[in-house]
Amino acid sequence: MRTCSHTVIIGGGLAATTLVEEVRKHGVDDAISIVSDEIHLPYDRPPLSKRALREDPADIGEYALRPAEWAEQMRVDFMLGSPAMGWDPSSRLVHLSGGRQVHFDRLIVATGAQARVLEAAPPGGQVHYLRNWSDVQALHQCLADNPGGRLLIVGAGFIGLEVASSMLERDIEVVEIVEAGPRPLSRVLPDALAELCWRPYQDARIPLSTGTALSGIETTPRGVTATLSDGRRIDCELVVVAAGSVPNTAWAAGLEYGPDGAIVCDGSGRSSVDGVWALGDAAAWPNPYVDTIRRIEHWQAAIDQAAVVAADLAGAGAESWGSAPYFWSDLLGGRVQLVGEAPATATTHTATRGERTVTVIRRGDTVAGVFARRRPRAMIAGRALLGSDMSALEAQAWCDRTVGVPHQPGKKREFDVQAS
Asked: Domain map of the chain by residue range?
């Protein structure tokens, strides 16, 4: 077994905690330090735009990834509130805030991503971004200070739609959702699935402006006035910006980066510099189910990649990330799930029964992904379909069986839409 004297993990989220546990399972007994810019021990981030936003502010302990005694059990040294500011690969040092330094023999970059900040909407006051626990607390405080306030959401991706759903459950008026792209979820789903996800919001009469950007924010005595690229001005009390994310990697100059700033890795998570690995939202890995090397911002991806990196650190033999990406989101209309990929040019075949929906996503005649709403069992069977050849009629028949509707060969359903 290969060992090292000191493994330093930069980043204190799901990827970091899972990596520690996997390394210890392999019997590696070396010193491990987790360096995090957070002042909190690792906590679960997906609920931030869901349960943590719907409910009144609670103790962050409710969202803790691991119990308080975990660090002692895993023999991990935490360095909290210590953002990485730079590094020196030759001397194996990471420079932290306040002039501190930490030496490493193996370095793992698990810094995740940060919210993409719009120049037209600097955070603070009535303008909020949602990426960490402090963001949730600030938004809750703003809601308390502005009872009955109206909310403008900038961005109609998954985070923007999750925020809208959470706010509606709190009876907070969403005055409008502004999206710079051509439609909601335009960067992540083909037209047919984006339409399916958006329909409950349309039924709830939430105004939507697509192809529209935010031009500026002006503070007023009652709140803010947002100016849009189409010239309109919207008065509201709160603004939540959900315009995507960027990897937290600027401090680690000298590594190979992708176009979005993610650290490019091989199938084991190794970067372009020897002794440095990267995983999670900060990294771009190859995956047999995805057609390009890019970062996969999914909870499950962080877990799966951590297991691969841990095996490599322990010298347990060659291994690569071969599991299918998996994602879920809680939207109006129910939980949606996706296994595999949903390319914009895909052909989709969908069956619906009541609130249940299942879709086979095909690239040519090959199954690229399976999507479901309120049908979690479809994910189990859907994984087995990935990469298989399936005709349009076979895909439609499988969808019919999975939601439990009589199959009528050749009948074109409402959402059987081919992308142009």
From this structure: 6-47+60-114+246-313, 117-243, 333-403
Measured on CA atoms in the order 165, 167, 171, 177, is the torsion positive or negative? negative
In this structure, whether the domain defined by 6-47+60-114+246-313 belongs to CATH 3.50.50.60 is answered with yes
pLDDT recorded at residue 56: 78
Domain 333-403 fold: Enolase-like; domain 1 (3.30.390)
Question: Over the chain, what HEC string results?
Answer: CCCCCEEEEECCCHHHHHHHHHHHHCCCCCEEEEECCCCCCCECCHHHHCHHHHCCCCCHHHHECCCCCHHHHHCEEEECCCCEEEEECCCCEEEEHHHCEEECCEEEECCCEEECCCCCCCCECCEEECCCHHHHHHHHHHHHHCCCCCEEEECCCHHHHHHHHHHHHCCCCEEEEEECCCCCCCCCCCHHHHHHHHHHHHHCCCCEEECCCEEEEEEECCEEEEEECCCCEEEECEEEECCCEEECCCCCCCCCECCCCCEECCCCCECCCCCEEECHHHEEECCCCCCCCECCCCHHHHHHHHHHHHHHHCCCCCCCCCCCCEEEEEECCEEEEEEECCCCCCEEEEEEECCEEEEEEEECCEEEEEEEECCCHHHHHHHHHCCCECCHHHHHHHHHHHHCCCCCCCCCCCCCCECC
Report the chain (420 residues): mean pLDDT per 10 consecutive residues.
77 98 95 97 95 86 94 97 97 97 98 97 96 95 92 98 96 97 93 95 97 96 94 97 97 96 97 97 96 92 97 88 95 96 90 94 94 94 94 92 75 41
d(CA 113, CA 244): 10
20 vs 92: CA distance, rounded Å: 20
- What CATH number belongs to 117-243? 3.50.50.60
Place of tokens 């907070």: 172
Please determine whether the domains at 6-47+60-114+246-313 and 117-243 fall in the same fold group of CATH. Answer: yes
State the pTM of this model. 0.92
**For 276-301, b where at least 16 C-beta lie within 10 A, e where not — what string?**
bbbbbbbbbbebebbeebbbbbbbbb
Q: For residue 222, which of 234, 208, 237, 207 has the smallest C-alpha distance?
A: 237
Looking at residue 410, its pLDDT comes to: 54
Cα–Cα–Cα angle for 392, 393, 398, nearest 5°? 100
CB atoms under 10 Å from CB of 420, counted, come to 6
